[in-house]
Amino acid sequence: MRAAVAHERGAPLRIEEVLVRDPGPGEVRVRLVACGICASDLHAWRSGEGIAFPAVLGHEAAGVVEAVGSGVSEVAKGQPVVIAWIPRCGKCRGCRSGRTHLCAAMRTDGNDGSISIHGQSLGRYMSVAGLSEQVVVRARAAIPAPESLSLRSICPVGCGVTTGFGAAVITGAARWGESVAVFGCGCVGLSAIQGARVAGAGRIVAVDPNPARLRLAGDLGATDFVAPVDGDPVRAIHAMTEGGVDLAVEAVGNGTVAGQAFDALAPGGRAVVVGLPSYTEEVHVSMLSLLLDKSLHGSIHGSADPLRDFPKLFALAERGELRLEEMTGPDFSLENVNDAFEALASGRAVRPRVVFEESA
Ligand SMILES: [Zn+2]
Ligand SMILES: [Zn+2]
Question: Which ligand is nearest to the CA of 140?
């Protein structure tokens, strides 16, 4: 089995022979078809935050169940799946309260010994390690996907799509007729725009310095566009929405932008921060402005429950209401994984994908 191994911060990933053990009780082994490269992979690899090297990155993985361990009833061999990085342990305070996105068992830097090289166990970023030809995960993390959708196109439902869509629709509770601003038009932001569209939002303002991304945002549902390089985005949003938006989503991971998202709100508005920041980033907001019934809300994975929400997203994709192909690609082989990271880092690609050879 081959995997792209990250040995140290920022050093090129190396394609190496690894050992992926058989699934134990309650586990499955999945042969991966495709894995999206998420901005969090890029962040962890560059910064060393939330990762213990050596490790295998990648957490937007889709594939086919290859083998099941004892006691597994959730899925059978041959089942197409998208892997969820929320463990859904079922026992912690978050899971017991129905908020499985707050599962206390969630680890970004876990290492369960399921994948190793020369006898050394490798870290599995976000408990997935999707840049490996096969992975072992808990059966309840393998969410069944319909045969009608290509695993390549739905792999980003594993993270970015659900995170953005959920930030707008679940955490932000977007309602019909509302005005929504989305800061940052990467995979997460574009998915938030699609969530707002599906929820029936009236005005959807896309904010991004990149003109190509704003065009794509328009194709996917944005009605108004702000390039922050042209001036203060907050002033522009207030001018075009008669005093601010009902909902703002920050999908950049930057404290200044999160402050702008809050400042773009009308009285009574909700700002949702979902972009992954560096671990020392802070956001400052006006207390006086908060008194106008405004809220600043954090969101992890769009407050989604993969078992509940992935099937809903798959159904929207089947009907063409959630458009994934426009946001994803180009495709890279595992050998060219470093080029995929470069395509994301440079902004050339919204969501580059690694497609595994056997299944190409
Ligand atoms: Zn839990
Ligand atoms: Zn991610």
Answer: 1
Domain 161-301 homologous superfamily, CATH: NAD(P)-binding Rossmann-like Domain (3.40.50.720)
Give the Å distance between the CA of 304 and the centre of ligand 2.
Answer: 13
Please name which ligand lies nearest the alpha carbon of 301: 2
CATH fold label, 2-144+329-359: Quinone Oxidoreductase; Chain A, domain 1 (3.90.180)
| pLDDT (mean) for 79-99 | 95
CA of 105 to the centre of ligand 1 (A): 5
Centre of ligand 1 to C-alpha 304, Å, is 13
Mean pLDDT score of the chain, rounded to an integer?
Answer: 96
pLDDT tens readout for residues 98-154: 999 999 999 999 899 999 999 999 999 999 999 999 999 999 999 999 999 999 999
Q: Where in the chain is the domain with CATH 3.40.50.720?
A: 161-301
Average pLDDT over residues 337-342: 98
Residue linked to tokens 């707050």: 102
Amino acid identity of 326? E
3-class DSSP assignment, residue 229: helix
Ligand found nearest the CA of 161: 2
Q: How far is the CA of 40 from the centre of ligand 2 (A)?
A: 5
CATH 3.90.180.10 location in the chain: 2-144+329-359
Distance (angstroms) between ligand 2 centre and the Cα of 196 equals 20
pLDDT in tens, 185-224: 999 999 999 999 999 999 999 999 999 999 999 999 999 9
**Centre of ligand 2 from the C-alpha of residue 157, in Å:** 10
Please tell me the predicted confidence (pLDDT) of residue 33: 98
Give 358's pLDDT tier (boundaries 50, 70, 90). low
* Cα-based angle 302, 306, 309 (whole degrees, multiple of 5): 75
Could you tell me the CA-to-CA distances from 155 to 37, 148, 162, 176, 306 in Å, in that order? 10, 14, 11, 28, 13
Q: How far is CA 113 from CA 106, 141, 266, in A?
A: 16, 17, 50
Partners of 56 in beta bridges: 124
